[in-house]
């Protein structure tokens, strides 16, 4: 009896040897008039379908039902007159293929032993039965190679390294159930977001990813060049300014789910390329958009896990239910620092506090000091979902002033598990004030702030035609999956950018 299993780690030489052997098998198939990669196969059922229909079959039972099924070989055991293979479908479900001398004949059985390898895609036709051990099986009358694997699979009984999981996600999907589950979870979450928006009469649109002027967020863009237009272009950092143009045009409830690109650092919560949701609701404000955001996330949690209480990859349960807390940025910072901090606090006093706490602030302004100090004192305490409300005006150039609170704007950031999941505004719709804010941002850019916004005359022209009062929000889809699954950002992205 022979049983195939890949060693924990193959050397480069061993991989090259296996590749040479498998290429020779491919050549033999072709030389004998067979196909190593046939276009069509007489498949009549899928592995999940068979498991759903016959999964409770008693041991050593026959159904009399003949099917044609295909899957990837993930386990292979050959004996004298009977060979076994575990075939795996894309969702990870498996069925056993049994190839016996009595059913296929000596020549076919010998070719099986000589040609079939772990990793091959295989087609078998035969009766659905249950083995003496009670394993759902296909007793093959015919088998064919559906796709010959030239490289070996990794060991299916050991953990892939994080590097391999990220760089060769296709192997991760074959080997690891959690990887497949994450892809399914993401699809369910995005479908839920769209369904929730539809229930509130939002329209989904698409806006440009190549832009002549970057804006809509404080971030450093990727720069490229258009040969057709002979001009410098930017990969968008946010869809905000175009979605607001749509609102000017009368699309009162609008959203987009698409890609953003930011030429910045990469870590456990940041990726240079990421999926972003942004939405705008005319005649709403940052409170109504906070309510909507909570509903979006809670509905997504139910879609993925069946409950507001989600179970993370490490087994921890996390409750996303209930009404989430709303916390004042200035008040929470004052409480934790022991110093009363307001929009009127002198810059020198903020600088002294930052120096004492070892907080570094690049291109210091009042708002940058307040936000960095808040992160230092408060951010790490926010495990449960919390809307952090009311930000400094100079770091939020697209946000409406808070009535009766000079220097503060109606903005929130939503924190979950200590990281920022979403942000929302009462949007600034006065074109005169918006122009003044852009001019102040341009001054910061001149001082070397790579994240400052530029003066966007086209956007201002749209605003001057009348932009309705509105609330708006943005949320990273990858971070939403982090909150639901407990995984890092590179695990929630199917094919993340790696160096």
UniProtKB/TrEMBL annotation:
<dbReference type="Pfam" id="PF00152">
    <property type="entry name" value="tRNA-synt_2"/>
</dbReference>
<keyword id="KW-0479">Metal-binding</keyword>
<dbReference type="GO" id="GO:0005829">
    <property type="term" value="C:cytosol"/>
</dbReference>
<keyword id="KW-0547">Nucleotide-binding</keyword>
<dbReference type="GO" id="GO:0000049">
    <property type="term" value="F:tRNA binding"/>
</dbReference>
<dbReference type="InterPro" id="IPR002313">
    <property type="entry name" value="Lys-tRNA-ligase_II"/>
</dbReference>
<dbReference type="GO" id="GO:0000287">
    <property type="term" value="F:magnesium ion binding"/>
</dbReference>
<dbReference type="GO" id="GO:0005524">
    <property type="term" value="F:ATP binding"/>
</dbReference>
<dbReference type="Pfam" id="PF01336">
    <property type="entry name" value="tRNA_anti-codon"/>
</dbReference>
<dbReference type="InterPro" id="IPR004365">
    <property type="entry name" value="NA-bd_OB_tRNA"/>
</dbReference>
<keyword id="KW-0436">Ligase</keyword>
<feature type="binding site">
    <location>
        <position position="420"/>
    </location>
    <ligand>
        <name>Mg(2+) 1</name>
    </ligand>
</feature>
<comment type="subunit">
    <text>Homodimer.</text>
</comment>
<dbReference type="InterPro" id="IPR018149">
    <property type="entry name" value="Lys-tRNA-synth_II_C"/>
</dbReference>
<dbReference type="GO" id="GO:0006430">
    <property type="term" value="P:lysyl-tRNA aminoacylation"/>
</dbReference>
<keyword id="KW-0460">Magnesium</keyword>
<keyword id="KW-0963">Cytoplasm</keyword>
<feature type="binding site">
    <location>
        <position position="413"/>
    </location>
    <ligand>
        <name>Mg(2+) 1</name>
    </ligand>
</feature>
<feature type="binding site">
    <location>
        <position position="420"/>
    </location>
    <ligand>
        <name>Mg(2+) 2</name>
    </ligand>
</feature>
<dbReference type="InterPro" id="IPR006195">
    <property type="entry name" value="aa-tRNA-synth_II"/>
</dbReference>
<dbReference type="InterPro" id="IPR012340">
    <property type="entry name" value="NA-bd_OB-fold"/>
</dbReference>
<dbReference type="InterPro" id="IPR045864">
    <property type="entry name" value="aa-tRNA-synth_II/BPL/LPL"/>
</dbReference>
<comment type="similarity">
    <text>Belongs to the class-II aminoacyl-tRNA synthetase family.</text>
</comment>
<dbReference type="GO" id="GO:0004824">
    <property type="term" value="F:lysine-tRNA ligase activity"/>
</dbReference>
<dbReference type="InterPro" id="IPR004364">
    <property type="entry name" value="Aa-tRNA-synt_II"/>
</dbReference>
<keyword id="KW-0030">Aminoacyl-tRNA synthetase</keyword>
<keyword id="KW-0067">ATP-binding</keyword>
<dbReference type="InterPro" id="IPR044136">
    <property type="entry name" value="Lys-tRNA-ligase_II_N"/>
</dbReference>
<protein>
    <recommendedName>
        <fullName>Lysine--tRNA ligase</fullName>
        <ecNumber>6.1.1.6</ecNumber>
    </recommendedName>
</protein>
<keyword id="KW-0648">Protein biosynthesis</keyword>
<feature type="domain" description="Aminoacyl-transfer RNA synthetases class-II family profile">
    <location>
        <begin position="191"/>
        <end position="496"/>
    </location>
</feature>
């Amino acid at each position: 009896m022979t049983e195939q299993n890949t060693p924990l780690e193959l050397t480069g030489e061993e991989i090259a040897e296996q590749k040479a052997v498998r290429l020779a098998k491919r050549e033999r198939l072709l030389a004998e008039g067979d196909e190593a990669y046939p276009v069509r196969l007489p498949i009549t059922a899928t592995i999940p379908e068979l498991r759903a229909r016959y999964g409770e079959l008693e041991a050593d039972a026959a159904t009399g039902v003949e099917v044609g099924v295909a899957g990837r070989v993930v386990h292979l055991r050959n004996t004298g007159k009977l060979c076994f293979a575990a075939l795996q479908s894309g969702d990870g479900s498996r069925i056993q293929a049994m190839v016996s001398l009595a059913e296929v004949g000596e020549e076919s059985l010998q070719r099986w032993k000589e040609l079939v390898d772990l990793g091959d895609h295989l087609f078998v036709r035969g009766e659905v039965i249950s083995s003496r051990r009670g394993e759902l099986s296909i007793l093959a009358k015919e088998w064919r190679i559906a796709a010959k694997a030239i490289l070996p699979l990794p060991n299916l009984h050991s953990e892939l390294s994080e590097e391999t999981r990220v760089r060769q996600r296709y192997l991760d999907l074959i080997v690891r159930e959690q990887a497949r589950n994450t892809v399914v979870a993401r699809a369910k979450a995005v479908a839920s977001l769209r369904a929730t928006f539809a229930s509130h009469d939002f329209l989904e649109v698409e806006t440009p990813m190549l832009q002549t002027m970057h804006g809509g967020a404080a971030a450093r863009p990727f720069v490229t060049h258009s040969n057709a237009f002979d001009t410098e272009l930017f990969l968008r950092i946010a869809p905000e300014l175009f979605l607001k143009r749509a609102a000017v045009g009368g699309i009162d409830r609008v959203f987009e789910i698409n890609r953003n690109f930011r030429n910045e650092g990469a870590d456990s919560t940041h990726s240079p390329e990421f999926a972003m949701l942004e939405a705008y609701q005319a005649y709403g404000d940052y409170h109504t958009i906070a309510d909507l955001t909570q509903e979006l996330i809670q509905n997504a949690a139910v879609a993925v896990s069946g409950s507001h209480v989600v179970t993370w990859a490490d087994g921890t349960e996390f409750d996303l239910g209930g009404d989430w807390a709303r916390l004042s940025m200035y008040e929470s910072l004052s409480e934790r620092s022991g110093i009363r901090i307001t929009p009127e606090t002198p810059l020198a006093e903020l600088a002294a506090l930052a120096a004492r706490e070892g907080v570094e602030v690049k291109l210091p302004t009042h708002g940058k000091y307040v936000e960095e100090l808040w992160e230092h004192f408060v951010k790490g305490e926010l495990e449960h979902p919390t809307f952090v409300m009311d930000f400094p005006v100079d770091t939020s150039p697209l946000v409406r002033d808070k009535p009766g609170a000079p220097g503060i704007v109606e903005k929130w950031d939503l924190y979950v598990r200590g990281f920022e999941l979403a942000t929302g505004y009462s949007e600034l719709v006065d074109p005169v004030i918006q122009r003044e804010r852009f001019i102040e941002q341009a001054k910061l850019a001149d001082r070397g702030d790579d994240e400052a916004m530029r003066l966007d005359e086209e956007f201002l022209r749209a605003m001057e035609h009348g932009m309705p009062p509105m609330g708006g929000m943005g949320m990273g889809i990858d971070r939403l999956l982090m909150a639901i699954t407990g995984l890092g950002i590179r695990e929630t992205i199917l094919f993340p950018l790696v160096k």
